[in-house]
């Protein structure tokens, strides 16, 4: 049994005539008769009474007609739903965003995307970069935005943002009037870092170790604004992304932008290598690239 057999049977039932049905669907009458007969043979039932001038449904025919129409309707709805997905009229995906990254870059991207595609649902999961990588590998989320580097053996990577970390110190700090600071000068300072599940934690520690010392961590937090308040309270220093530093009150802290060597804060959209990417997720990746990297061309993540 296939959809064509059911569809042809419904047309005969509709017109109560093989000849009228064949004209309506532009199929020869012998072919139409054969298709309906094959359906009857497969079911082992007579569906149409052909003994009168008009073709009449048998009792079995009426039952099959009702169910066949349901099957055809469901098939049409399926095709329409798939077309909607292909043309980005609907869909959903889950996006992992560390709080600091989400607050810095993605409100505009998400809002503008929603204006264009109002029926695509983005479920946002706020976690640190390391947790996002784990969730991707476990199949719990579809896409993630993290600080590079990541293991490109297991993740597909689309770079989107290149930034640096700035040094943030209290107003009365001895370095507060400096325009440039070497990282090695911070050897004895109390550091306030993002928690260990954030990739920024590792970026800062690795940079310091590269300069010959391990940072002395006074506090850790998952919230940039709490880190800021601790600096204001003269509890330590921190290295924070440029986008966060732009939000800080210069009357309360000092931001030193020239750090030697510089600490990169490069972001990328990632997903599990070989993992399925929906049309909605693909569309969002292309859209994010256009917004965050003006002049960038669309790329197909599956290519």
TrEMBL record:
Residues 1-58 form the HTH lysR-type domain. One of its GO terms (cellular component) is cytosol. The keyword Transcription applies. GO terms for molecular function: DNA binding; DNA-binding transcription factor activity. SUPFAM superfamilies: Periplasmic binding protein-like II, Winged helix' DNA-binding domain. Keywords: DNA-binding, Transcription, Transcription regulation. Pfam families: HTH_1 (PF00126), LysR_substrate (PF03466). The keyword Cytoplasm does not apply. InterPro entries: HTH-type_LysR_regulators, LysR_HTH_N, LysR_subst-bd, WH-like_DNA-bd_sf, WH_DNA-bd_sf. Belongs to the LysR transcriptional regulatory family. PANTHER family: HTH-TYPE TRANSCRIPTIONAL REGULATOR YBHD, NITROGEN ASSIMILATION TRANSCRIPTIONAL ACTIVATOR-RELATED. This is HTH-type transcriptional regulator YwbI. The gene is ywbI.
